[in-house]
Specification:
By secondary structure, the chain is of the alpha/beta class. It has helices spanning 19-29, 46-57, 70-84, 99-111, 128-134, 153-158, 182-192, 222-225, 234-237, 252-265, 271-280, 285-288, 290-304, 333-343, 372-383; strands at residues 33-34, 94-97, 117-122, 138-143, 164-170, 198-202, 228-233, 246-249, 320-324, 346-347, 349-350, 363-367. Strand 3 (117-122), helix 5 and strand 4 (138-143) form a beta-alpha-beta unit. The structure holds 4'-deoxy-4'-aminopyridoxal-5'-phosphate and glutamine. 4'-deoxy-4'-aminopyridoxal-5'-phosphate binds next to helix 4.
């Protein structure tokens, strides 16, 4: 191949390969137990796979409607109304996307331009900042407290300027496994009152929440629902991260603008998978049973670690558990995580890369969306550290 022999003016000069890819590759190289990237190591319900194959045989192999299969949008609308008491019109307030990642990227692209400020709460999932920067926007960070991962709402308010166009929140929160309380949502609502700021509420772990805690969706709050895109992911809910299927829901005026970009960004998502999900979503137990399913895994993982030297606050939601390894080592988290995978063959995710200024509090994240056998093997090794 002849070389491209000219200068490249990168729009993302600081972006490197994601830590998920790096740790995943290290896990493979060292044949380690992979608790790094967030995905289940067990199979989805075979019924769902049969539904996709039936849809393909029935001929759903060409483009789906731009906004998504209507039956699926109706199912999403019904779920949101039953769970959060908010009715989204499937016709013009819900769009099916290629995972939550595409929903988030498209929302940012549709609304953020040069010099616009977007508030991001750190540590943050890694897809927000590059999407802001590639569109010329400026991420403005609010760091969660180091101990309990709470937002300082006074600091949050002090960072709102005339240039603030958008705020991104994520509850249940990746990577900390904490959730926003009702009080947090009310603080957010009040902080944005009398502004025209749009909110992205990343709620991909809405069905993975423990100990009887309640998911406070932005859709529950009038003053937030009227300015928010709520983003969901079937990948998390139905153990199908590789199918890349998600959605966003928001007020018709905002959704109208979103779709202008969406139709030229991807046009539409996989047709057969949408048909299958539309049928599968009709049974609420398929998503309501998830809390219990993952709570058992979290508990098994925590019990397994109870005699370890890690300091642990049980995860409140998501399928991630943060652990503090300062009782074992004072190494920087990236060094510790690398040693964990090369010497002990357990892959994790170091957290400093998700913080402002790379703050390192000696925390690594483990994903417990794994078979019980994998979790037992992993905790046995971790207890020896
Ligand atoms: N947001 C958060 C907080 C996530 O952890 C993920 C995980 N991949 C996503 C968004 C992206 O979801 P999807 O795989 O549906 O694109
Ligand atoms: N959401 C997954 C996690 O947090 C990662 C997905 C990805 O690799 N981009 O681990």
């Amino acid at each position: 191949m002849p070389k491209y022999n000219h200068k490249i003016f990168s729009k993302l000069p600081n972006v490197r390969t994601t830590i998920f890819t790096t740790m995943g590759q290290l896990a493979q190289k060292h044949e380690a137990i992979n608790l790094s990237q967030g995905f289940p190591n067990f199979e989805p319900d075979p019924t769902l796979i049969d539904l996709v194959s039936q849809a393909m045989k029935q001929g759903y192999n060409q483009y789906a409607p731009m906004a998504g299969v209507m039956e699926l949008r109706e199912g999403i609308s019904k779920k949101l109304e039953q769970l959060y008491g908010r009715r989204y019109n499937p016709d013009n307030e819900i769009t099916v996307t290629i995972g939550a990642t595409q929903a988030i990227f498209t929302i940012i692209t549709a609304f953020i331009g040069h010099g616009d400020e977007v508030m991001v709460i750190k540590p943050a999932y890694d897809c927000y900042e590059p999407a802001i920067e590639v569109n010329g926007g400026i991420p403005v960070f609010v760091q969660l407290s180091n101990t309990d991962f709470k937002v300082d709402w006074q600091e949050f308010r002090s960072k709102i300027t005339s240039k603030t166009k958008m705020v991104i929140i994520n509850t249940p929160h990746n990577p900390s496994g904490t959730i926003f309380s009702k009080e947090d949502m009310l603080q957010l609502q009040q902080s944005l009152d009398k502004t025209d700021i749009i909110v992205i509420s990343d709620e991909v772990y809405e069905h993975i929440i423990f100990d009887g805690l309640v998911h406070e969706s932005a859709s529950k709050f009038d003053g937030l629902a009227s300015r928010t895109f709520v983003c969901g992911s079937f990948g998390k809910t139905f153990h199908i991260t590789g199918w890349k299927m998600g959605y966003c829901a928001g007020p018709a005026e905002l959704m109208h603008e979103f779709r202008k970009t969406h139709q030229f960004n991807v046009f539409s998502a996989d047709h057969a998978v949408q048909k299958a999900l539309a049928s599968y979503l009709k049974e609420p137990q398929h998503y309501l049973g998830l809390n219990q399913f993952y709570q058992e895994k979290r508990n098994l993982f925590l019990e397994g670690l109870s005699s370890s030297r890690f300091k642990i606050k049980p995860s409140q939601g998501t399928y991630f558990q943060l652990v503090d390894y300062s009782g074992i080592s004072q190494e920087p988290d990236e060094v510790f995580a690398e040693r964990l995978v090369t010497e002990h063959r357990i892959a994790s995710i170091p957290i400093s890369g998700f913080n402002t200024k790379g703050i390192d509090k000696h925390l690594v994240r483990f994903c417990f969306a794994k078979t019980n056998e994998t979790l037992e093997k992993a905790t046995e090794i971790l207890c020896k550290l």
